[in-house]
Structures are given as C-alpha cells and as structure tokens.
DNA sequence: GAGCACTGC
C-alpha cells in the first residue's frame, strides 16, 4: 500500500484548507488515486475545523464508507469509532468523540430529517458526486437551498456550515454554476494511460445479445494470444450472459495450444472467472486472488466491476458497450429493466479500470459510429429515471412544499414528480393541499416503500404486526429464490413449489413469510437455505431489516396514539386485508383466459409469472394483488395473492379521483381556495360515478375488456402459426 | 411456461 506522503494532493494542502475555510461551497475534482477522499478530511481536521462541528464525508456505498474510515483512522493513529468513525445502516461505529465521520449518503439524508440545519456539522463533503446517486443529488439540492437562504440571513458574515462537493473531472462547471459559481479546485490525478480502440462488430443497428457475447469472447481470446502478460476484464450486462460467455471461453481456450510466447513472455493458460452481484461472497473473493504464475486471469463481470469492486492487475478491458439499467416509465407506471448502450463517460470509466497499476489497453467491440450515434455523453442521472415517490415524501417532510421548483442539478420530468405526488395522495401520505399528513409522517419513519408501510401500520392497528414485519422485510430484499442454470434447475423449482404448497398455497406473500419463519426456526439457518435453494445473504439481511422495523414500530407506538381496530374473520383474511390497504394500487382482475387487467387506470394486460404459486390456477382467480410487475417477453405479475373485491372496493375510487383536480396545483406554493372547492365538488361526483362503474363491472360475468380480447386474438393467431 | 444490473435507508 502506498504511503500518503507521495499522493499528488499533498502539495496543495495549504491552498485546499484555505479554500474550504473561505467558502461556503467548494468543488474539488481529481481522478481516482489523487487521495482526495482520504486526505482532505485529515487536512481539515489538522486545521482545527472539527472544533466547530463534525467533518462529515458521504459515500454512495456502504463498503466504501467503512473501508475509507478504517484507513483514515490508521493514518491518523486513532482507534476506529473514536475520533474517526463511520455510520451505515445496521452499523454505527461512531461515539461522542467522533469528529471525522464517513457515512453513506442515505444516512446523512436521514440525519437531515431529524436535524434540518445539520447543527452538529462544520463541514459536509459529498464524495463521488459524479456518480449522481439519487441521495447525493437530493443532498446537493437541499444544501444549496438551506445554505443560500442562511447566507442571506446571517448578518455577521460568519459561516457555520461549509459544503465541499468532490467529483471526477467531468461536469465540474455545471456543479460550480449550480452552487452559485463557487470555486473549483483540481487535483492532478495519478493513473496510467489507457489506449482505447474501437471494433466493428456492433454498429448503430445491432442490439442482439448473442452478437456482443460472441464478440467479447472472440476479442478476449485474441487479447490472450497476442498481448503481453496482464489480466483481462470483460464487461457484460448480466448473470446469464456472463455464464454463457464463460462457457464459451472454457471451450475455446481448451482448444488453444497453451504454450506459446508473446513477445518473449510465456503465457500458459487462461483462468476464467465470472463476477456478478448475486454470486455468493466467498466465490466473489476468488476474483481478488492473484493467478498462478504464467496464468492469465480473465474476469467476466457486470457493471459491479466498474465502481463497486476494484481488481488489481487488470491491464486489458474488453467492453461490450451495454449495461442493464432500471428505468421507471411514468406513462405506464412501471419499472422496466432494460439493456441499453452505456454512456461515453461510463465507457471511459470502464477503460480506466485498466490503468490502475500500469499502462493498459481497452478493446471496445463497438464501432466509432456507435460511439457517436448511440452513446450519450453522460449517463442519465437516477433522479431522472427512478420512481420518485419516496423522494417527494422526504422533501415534503423537510418542508419543501413546492417539489417542482426545488433546485435540482438536473430537473426530473414534471410527469415523474406528478406521478409521485399522485401516489402519495393515494396512500393518504399527503392531503389535497399537498401537505404531509400524520400518516405521511409515520410512513417516512420506515425505510420501506410507502404502500408496504401503510399495510404494516394497518396490521399494527389490528395487533398482527408479527405477520407483516417479516413480510415487509422479505419484500424489501433482493429475490431470495435461487434458480441455477440448467443442471439443478428442476430440483430447485420442485423445492420451491413444495414450500409454496406447505405454506397453504395460492399466496406468494404467505410463502415468503413461511420461508422467513422456517429459516429463523431452523438449527442452522445457512444450511437450511442451501438445502432449500434460498439466498442466505438475502435472508440474513431480511432478518436485520425485520429487527430494525420492529424497533421503529415499538418506538412510534410508545409516543404516538396508535389506532386500535378489531377483526372477527380468520387470520388469512386479515393478513390479506392488511395487504390490500397498501397494495390497492397494485390490483388486477382476470378478464379472459389467463389475461389480467390492471386497475391502476392504465388497464395493462398482464400475466401471472410462472414462478408464482398461482400460475396455472388462473381459472380459479378473479381479483388479485401483486408486489411488482416485470416486463420481459410479456408483462408479468410477481408475488401475487388472490383477494376479494369487497376488500378493495372502498379504496379503488381513490385511484381515479386524482384526475379530478390539477395535481400540478397541489405541488405549487399557492392554493386557490375557490378553485379547490370547485374541484372538490367535481371530484366527489366523479368518485361516486367511479364507484358505481366498478360495482357494475364486478357484477358482470363476462368482462368487456377490449384490450384483453385483442391480445387474446393475437395470441391465438400466434399459436396457429 | 420462466430472461434480476447496481446501490441505499
């Protein structure tokens, strides 16, 4: 490990310290390896800034916050958790003595909710701002808003809180302009040159996955037989592609005569290693081991290798040019995971992975034309492509009433904000004036999706929170069911079907709950998971989340007046009724055959996913609720359970009443009372009409869903062909 | 009849 004595930042110590002291906002840029993350906080500590409050540094990722804090505490000869500490979810390693604090951006956002002025801090450093994480973007806007206001108000000219934004050298002018034309300081980087070359396999017209998988395999092997020693990193988009590419590499590498010389260096063989997020952690660790001498390592990875994990010894990059990206489509109210071309800045980031220890080479399989025509300069920031429901509630809770005119570094489409407002209104988290309700404040306390929190709170009122707490935890972690490629797939599927049947069947929510309970009750939870094809890592985090949710609920029950309700029916019904209060936005009704139609106003034609315990049982179903929709070959509902129309009857009109008045008005500062009254009376009428219509629809035996019929005809035609 | 990248509270 290199000492901090030779870092390029060192010679700028005095200038940097002075700049921070003299300015409310400062932008610091520098490539990886400049030492800004570890050194700047130390300089500010030495300059005595900690006397005015904590020096806080945010990171977009947990591991980064923890490892950097460890390193800095060592460099400063402090015990971790004393003067230097870190805080991430489930792990608070700070104390009264902590003055240099590394944390995730999400943690700081939570702190702002409790203390909007961040009175404990003297400096806040937002690191990795170029990554444009949702939380960092919100923090940027909030700090700009509060500090510029405070600045105007303070008469003595003294500055209490300073903000430093650290970013890679991209878009620094934009940041500076955003922060009132604040100074920008650039630290020279210390990376090695990487030469990039384009290929010709992917042009503007090709987007076929088998094409780029074949091509990266071909190029990786070409690198292997023609380039000097050094490891290869291949970027693809997901698990199945990676497994396919690895299989092809094994096969083809075997047919190569291993002993050949490349410019007088003997490279004997190729060690092929897959790398993706859902891989077990111990398997991931293998990636970091140096290969045996004379063997070249080839890591085939997802974007996880672009920022989250750094592999030493990489000299060659093979870039497919694609990434899987989760985009929220506000037109249909759906999240869609799609393969898209990476941006130019992302391509440079990938290439940079080859220049960390020596000069490197990057082989892009796409053409120059593809680069010019298909790739954006920068990746669209998360705030412009994510669902903003939680973000808007956060802002409202912080007193930002006008979320449309909030200072965003990049403004999200108004439609996205309106959709979020609409959802919050549907959940009764905000009222028709756009003010946060009491329920809204409760919802904010939980690190969960608002609908899920609403269901949990309902359950707490009925005294059955013991069912909803584990379920909420299970629904907030990644997919827990393992589905191996080919060989053992049937065995895994069978286990999972058995588990669904044992938990009562016909209810995917109940299956999740059972898995949680069975695993918790077993003597060896990790062994139980292995036996039942369950991701132990995911279940472990569900356990932690459940504990955290339980603590929050208990705390709130002690201070707030919780409503208490009673219910006479059976337990399964109560469970599903509670779910309905949070999932009434996710209701679908079977229209014809196996086709369902969503009740959210879009009327999307959807199918039950084959992994569901309700699959092939559609004939018995009428109304269902679901946790999420997924778009692949069809639009699928996943995690589904049957409900009765009665349970959602009173809730459904709420889905339509938002059309009754201009939502954009409730987002803005001024509310015209007269207008509002007019709209409200109109709305009451519409609400009645909608309720009637729904009632009528429910009575009809054959549903006149034109869209579903059209799809059915289309499918029939396809089958004939 | 199955196609989930990566983060975070």
TrEMBL record:
EC number: 3.6.4.13
Record's protein name: RNA helicase
Pfam families: DEAD, HA2_C, Helicase_C, OB_NTP_bind, WHD_HA2
Region listing for Disordered, in residue ranges: 676-706
Classification via PANTHER family: ATP-DEPENDENT RNA HELICASE (PTHR18934), ATP-DEPENDENT RNA HELICASE DHX40-RELATED (PTHR18934:SF271)
Biological processes, Gene Ontology terms: mRNA processing
Keywords for this protein: ATP-binding, Helicase, Hydrolase, Nucleotide-binding
Catalytic activity as recorded in UniProt: ATP + H2O = ADP + phosphate + H(+)
Nucleotide-binding listed as a keyword: yes
One Gene Ontology molecular-function label: RNA binding
Basic and acidic residues biased stretches: 676-700
Stretches assigned to the Helicase ATP-binding domain: 17-188
Location of the Helicase C-terminal domain: 220-399
Record has Nucleotide-binding as a keyword: yes
């Amino acid at each position: 490990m290199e000492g901090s004595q030779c870092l390029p930042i060192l010679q700028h110590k005095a200038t940097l310290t002075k700049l921070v002291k003299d300015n409310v906002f400062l932008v610091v840029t520098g490539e990886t390896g400049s030492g800004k993350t570890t050194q700047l906080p130390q300089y500010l500590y030495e300059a005595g800034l900690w006397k005015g409050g904590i020096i806080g540094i945010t990171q977009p990722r947990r591991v980064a916050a923890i490892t950097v804090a460890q390193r800095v505490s060592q460099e400063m000869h402090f015990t971790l958790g004393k003067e230097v500490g870190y805080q991430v979810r489930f792990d608070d390693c700070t104390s009264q003595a902590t003055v240099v604090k590394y944390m995730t951006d999400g943690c700081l956002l939570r702190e702002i909710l409790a203390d909007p002025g961040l009175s404990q801090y003297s400096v806040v450093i937002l690191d990795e701002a170029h990554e444009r994480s949702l939380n960092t973007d919100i923090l940027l806007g909030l700090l700009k808003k509060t500090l510029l206001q405070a600045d105007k108000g303070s008469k003595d000219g003294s500055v209490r809180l300073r903000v430093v934004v650290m970013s890679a050298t991209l878009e620094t002018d934009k940041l500076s302009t955003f922060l009132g034309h604040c100074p920008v300081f650039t630290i020279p980087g210390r990376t090695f040159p990487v030469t990039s070359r384009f290929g010709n396999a992917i042009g503007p017209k090709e987007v076929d996955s088998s094409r780029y998988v074949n091509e990266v395999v071909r190029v990786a092997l070409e690198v292997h037989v023609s380039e000097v020693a050094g490891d290869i990193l291949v970027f693809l988009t997901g698990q199945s592609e990676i497994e396919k590419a690895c299989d092809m590499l094994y096969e083809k590498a075997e047919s190569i005569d291993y002993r050949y010389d490349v410019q007088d260096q003997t490279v004997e063989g190729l060690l092929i290693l897959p790398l993706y997020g859902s891989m077990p952690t111990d398997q991931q660790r293998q990636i970091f081991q140096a290969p045996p001498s004379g063997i070249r390592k080839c890591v085939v990875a997802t974007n996880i290798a672009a920022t989250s994990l750094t592999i030493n010894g990489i000299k060659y990059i093979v870039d497919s040019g694609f990434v899987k990206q989760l985009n929220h489509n506000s037109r249909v109210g759906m999240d869609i995971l799609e393969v898209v071309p990476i941006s130019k800045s992302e391509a440079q980031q990938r290439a940079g992975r080859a220049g960390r220890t020596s000069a490197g080479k990057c082989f892009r399989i796409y053409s120059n034309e593809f680069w010019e025509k298909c790739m954006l300069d920068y990746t669209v920031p998360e705030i412009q492509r994510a669902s903003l429901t939680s973000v808007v509630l956060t802002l409202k809770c912080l007193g930002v009433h006008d979320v449309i005119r909030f200072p965003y570094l990049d403004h999200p489409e108004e439609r996205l904000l309106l959709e979020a407002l609409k959802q919050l209104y549907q959940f009764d988290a905000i009222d028709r004036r756009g003010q946060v309700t009491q329920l809204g404040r409760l919802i904010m306390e939980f690190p969960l999706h608002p609908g899920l929190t609403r269901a949990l709170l309902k359950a707490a009122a009925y005294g059955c929170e013991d069912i909803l707490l584990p379920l909420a935890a299970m629904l907030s972690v990644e997919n827990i069911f393992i589905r191996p490629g080919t060989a053992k797939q049937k065995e895994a599927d069978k286990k999972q079907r058995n588990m669904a049947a044992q938990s009562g069947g016909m209810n995917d929510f109940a299956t999740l709950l059972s898995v949680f309970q069975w695993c918790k009750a077993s003597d060896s939870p990790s062994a139980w998971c292995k036996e039942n094809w369950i991701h132990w890592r995911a279940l472990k985090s569900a356990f932690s989340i459940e504990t955290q949710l339980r603590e929050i609920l208990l705390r709130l029950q002690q201070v707030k007046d919780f409503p208490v309700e009673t219910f006479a029916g059976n337990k399964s019904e109560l469970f599903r009724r509670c779910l309905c209060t949070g999932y009434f936005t996710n209701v679908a009704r079977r229209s014809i055959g196996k086709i369902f139609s969503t009740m959210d106003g879009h009327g999307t034609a959807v199918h039950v996913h084959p992994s569901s315990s309700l699959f092939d049982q559609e004939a018995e179903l009428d109304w269902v609720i679901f946790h999420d929709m997924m778009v692949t070959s069809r639009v699928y509902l996943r995690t589904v359970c049957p409900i009765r129309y009665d349970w959602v009857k009173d809730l459904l009109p709420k889905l339509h009443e938002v059309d009754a008045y201009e939502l954009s008005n409730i987002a803005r500062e001024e509310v015209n009372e007269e207008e509002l009254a007019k709209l409200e009376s109109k709305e009451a009428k519409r609400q009645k009409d909608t309720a009637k219509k729904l009632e009528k629809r429910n009575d009809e035996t054959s549903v006149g869903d034109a869209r579903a019929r059209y799809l059915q005809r289309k499918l029939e035609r396809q089958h004939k062909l």
